[in-house]
Write a structure and sequence with these properties.
Radius of gyration: 29 Å
Structural class: alpha/beta
Number of helices: 10
Order of helices and strands: HHEEEEEEEEEEEEEHHEHHEHEHEHEH
C-alpha cells in the first residue's frame, strides 16, 4: 500500500511540474538563421570618439543608405559638408582633425535627410535647430565643462508678468553658488540672445552656467545674477515648451514692425523691476550690466541709448549700426537723433562699452560703422576683434572675456 502511494505521489509531482513550466509559454519557434541573427544585432556605435591627438571619429549605422555626409562647425564656409565612408557592416565613419579645443556642433545627412547623431546624448537646441555637439578638451575650452569639486550655481526657469507686452513671460535666471539660504546681495547681468533663439539659448548653446561657475570659482569673475529672457516680443517662452501666444492683427513683417521696440521697453519697465523685487540685487548703474549677440546686440544698443544712466557695463557682440541706404532727410534726422542719444549715454557715467566681432562676420561692416559713429563724438569703448564669423564659438569666448570685466 505504501509503495503504491509513493508511486502515485511521484507521478503527481511530475505532472504538476510539467504543467507549471508549460503554463503561459508560447510554442517553441525554430531558431533564426545565422544571417537573420547577424542583421538583428546592430553593431555598437561609438560616436563621437575623441582621440589622444584631438582628432575625432564620427560614426552612424545606416546599412541601407547610399550616401551620408557630416556638417560641423570646424568646417569653413556655410553649407560645407564632408563625405563619410561605409564599411561592410553598414557603418559610415569619418575621422577629422586634429581639432582645436572648442565646443563643436554637427549634424549628419543620410540620403538627403538631416539628423542628429543617434549615438551621442549631447544635443543642443537653438530655436528650431537641433544639433549634436562635442567638446574637444584643452585650455581654450576648459570653461565649458561641468566640473566636479567646483561650487555650482542654479539656473531657474521663472515666470514674470509684462504689462508692456500684455503677457506672462519666461526667463532663465542664474544665481551663483551660495545664493540659496544666504543674505548677500548681487549685481545683475542681463544677457540677450540672437535672432532665432530664445531664453534657453545662452544656457544651452552658450554654456553660460558652466562658464560662470568656473570663472567665479577661479576668482576671475565677481559672483553675479545673470538674467536671460526671451528676446522675441511676440513669444511668451521657448517654442518647444511654451504654447505660442495667439497672434493679434498683422502677420509677418507687419507684425514684426508693430512689435519693434516693445521688447526693449519691456526689459526696463517690466523685467528689471521684477528681478529687483524677487531677487537680492544690488541696484544702481554700477551694479547693472547688459550684453547681447546679434539681434541681442541691437536690443542692447536700443535699451542703453534710450536709457542712459541705467547700465554701467554694456556689451555688443556681433552687431553694428544698421543704416539706411542713401542720405535721405529721414536718414539724416535719424542719425542726428542717434548722436543726441549717444551723447547722453557718453555722459551717463557708464564704466565699460565693449564691442566684439569676428573678422569674417557678415555684420563686420556694420560694426565698423558703429565704431566710426562712436569715434566722431569721442565715445570711449573697447574693441575686441576675433577670428571666425557669426558663430557661438565666438559668442562663448566673448562671454568668457566680458564677464570678468564686470562689477570691478
Amino acid at each position: 500500500m505504501k509503495k503504491i502511494l509513493n508511486t502515485a505521489f511521484v507521478t503527481f509531482v511530475a505532472i504538476f511540474l510539467v504543467s507549471v513550466n508549460s503554463f503561459g509559454q508560447e510554442p517553441a519557434r525554430p531558431a533564426a538563421a545565422p544571417e537573420a541573427r547577424q542583421q538583428a544585432r546592430a553593431p555598437r556605435i561609438v560616436s563621437p570618439e575623441i582621440h589622444a591627438d584631438n582628432s575625432v571619429t564620427f560614426r552612424i549605422n545606416a546599412r541601407d543608405a547610399s550616401r551620408v555626409t557630416i556638417s560641423g562647425e570646424w568646417q569653413e564656409g556655410p553649407g560645407s559638408v564632408q563625405e563619410m565612408v561605409k564599411n561592410d557592416a553598414g557603418v559610415f565613419s569619418l575621422t577629422v582633425g586634429p581639432l582645436s579645443p572648442e565646443l563643436y556642433g554637427y549634424t549628419f545627412t543620410v540620403d538627403g535627410v538631416g539628423t542628429i547623431d543617434p549615438a551621442n546624448v549631447q544635443v543642443r537646441r537653438d530655436g528650431a535647430r537641433y544639433q549634436s555637439f562635442l567638446i574637444v578638451p584643452g585650455p581654450e575650452s576648459d570653461l565649458y565643462f561641468h566640473k566636479h569639486g567646483v561650487p555650482h550655481g542654479t539656473v531657474s526657469k521663472v515666470w514674470y508678468n509684462s504689462p508692456v507686452l500684455k503677457m506672462d513671460r519666461r526667463a532663465y535666471v542664474y544665481t551663483p553658488a551660495g545664493y540659496e539660504g544666504g543674505t548677500q546681495k548681487y549685481p545683475v547681468f542681463y544677457l540677450l540672445h540672437g535672432a532665432g533663439g530664445d531664453e534657453d539659448a545662452w544656457t544651452n548653446m552658450g554654456h553660460t552656467a558652466q562658464i560662470m561657475d568656473n570663472l567665479i570659482a577661479q576668482g576671475r569673475a565677481e559672483p553675479m545674477i545673470v538674467v536671460m529672457t526671451n528676446g522675441n516680443a511676440n513669444q511668451a517662452g521657448a517654442q518647444n515648451e511654451v504654447p505660442p501666444v495667439p497672434a493679434e492683427g498683422e502677420q509677418g513683417m507687419a507684425a514684426y514692425q508693430r512689435m519693434a521696440g516693445r521688447f526693449e521697453e519691456h526689459l526696463v519697465k517690466d523685467l528689471m523691476p521684477w528681478t529687483e523685487k524677487h531677487y537680492r540685487t544690488l541696484n544702481g548703474i554700477e551694479n547693472r550690466a547688459i550684453a547681447g549677440l546679434s539681434m541681442g546686440g541691437m536690443h542692447t544698443q536700443t535699451i542703453t541709448n534710450n536709457n542712459p544712466g541705467v547700465f554701467g557695463y554694456i556689451g555688443v557682440f556681433s552687431m553694428g549700426i544698421m543704416t539706411r541706404a542713401g542720405q535721405t532727410q529721414d536718414a539724416a534726422k535719424a542719425a542726428a537723433e542717434l548722436n543726441t542719444k549717444l551723447e547722453a549715454l557718453k555722459n551717463s557715467g557708464y564704466k565699460l562699452y565693449w564691442i566684439a566681432c569676428g573678422k569674417d562676420d557678415f555684420v563686420y561692416k556694420g560694426v565698423v560703422t558703429l565704431r566710426e559713429t562712436l569715434d566722431k563724438i569721442n565715445f570711449k569703448y573697447v574693441y575686441r576683434e576675433s577670428t571666425g564669423g557669426h558663430t557661438w564659438a565666438n559668442w562663448r569666448i566673448y562671454l568668457s572675456e566680458f564677464a570678468p570685466m564686470l562689477f570691478k
